[in-house]
Specification:
Layout: E1 2-4, H1 11-22, H2 28-35, E2 42-47, E3 50-62, E4 65-75, H3 84-98, E5 103-106, H4 111-118, E6 123-124, E7 127-134, E8 143-144, H5 147-157, H6 168-176, E9 178-181, E10 185-192, E11 195-203, H7 208-215, E12 219-225, E13 229-230, E14 233-236
Parallel strand pairs: 4-5, 11-12
Antiparallel strand pairs: 1-2, 2-3, 3-4, 5-14, 6-14, 7-12, 7-13, 8-9, 9-10, 10-11
Helix pairs in contact: 2-6, 5-6
Length: 252
């Protein structure tokens, strides 16, 4: 059993494993490889040249702390029940600590995974709320922004102790969603027929009905800062690492 970053020859195998476990969504994983993938931000377990488990991380920060956002943790179904995920996470924690990271964060997809990560030393640290509404009669002013513009505006609107996600995080996000800004709000969203799915609405959340009218959607759901739903978890790599209070968008 080896712990290593993937080599060029490993990439097709890793992609096949991700698709087998998470599913194929209209070229989603190829999009990930083309916009966000960095081999030195991916860690795998290999056995006899075959990848049996793997994960990826994005760089984030909060109040100068360097944070790794772990994403796409996967174990080959044929090798489950051997503790590979725990072994891989232990290896990655040690690696990230040696590289100067202060903490590791992730967003579990369900309650079962949340409990599994809790047993690996993770703790709940951020939450969010969701609002649903229908379109108002009057539209608000709204326009598209690029990832660089979004990053600058997000810094100004981010709640206190919020996590910064910039660089290839936003490049990957923009490849899947649209980035919008208004006079007093910031929105990341995607549309499905007449429904808007807002993965992050910052600033004036009361603008949501007017946003729907402006974008031609009759109804929508928006994730906003709040306390109603547990969201990200954290594993501190040293005792004085900061504990963020808002994470925002995730890729899970």
């Amino acid at each position: 059993m080896n712990f290593e970053h993937p080599g060029k020859d490993h990439i097709p195998q890793l992609l096949t494993l991700w698709k087998a476990v998470f599913g194929e969504y209209d070229g989603f994983w190829e999009l990930f490889l083309n916009t966000a993938f960095l081999p030195d931000h991916c860690r795998c377990i290999t056995e006899n040249g075959k990848i049996t488990a793997g994960l990826y991380w994005f760089d984030c920060s909060c109040h100068q702390d360097k944070i790794a956002y772990i994403y796409a943790v996967v174990t080959d179904p044929a090798h489950r029940g051997k503790g590979l995920c725990r072994k891989l996470m232990t290896d990655v924690h040690s690696l990230l600590k040696s590289q100067g990271y202060d903490s590791v964060m992730l967003v579990p997809a369900d309650a079962g995974l949340r409990e599994m990560y809790r047993k690996m030393g993770y703790a709940d640290c951020t939450s969010l709320s969701e609002i649903t509404c229908t379109a108002a009669d009057t539209a608000v002013e709204i326009h598209n922004v690029n990832p660089e513009e979004y990053a600058a505006l997000r810094r100004a609107m981010l709640p206190e102790w919020g996590v910064l996600q910039e660089g290839n995080n936003l490049t990957f996000l923009a490849a899947q969603t649209q980035l919008f800004a208004g006079e007093d709000f910031l929105l990341t969203a995607w549309m499905e027929e007449d429904t808007l799915h807002g993965t992050e609405l910052l600033g004036n959340t009361g603008a949501a009905p007017g946003i729907l009218r402006a974008l031609g959607c009759e109804k929508g759901m928006f994730q906003i800062p709040g306390q109603n739903k547990p969201f990200a978890m954290i594993h501190k790599l040293h005792d004085d690492a900061v504990i963020p209070k808002y994470f925002g968008f995730s890729f899970d």
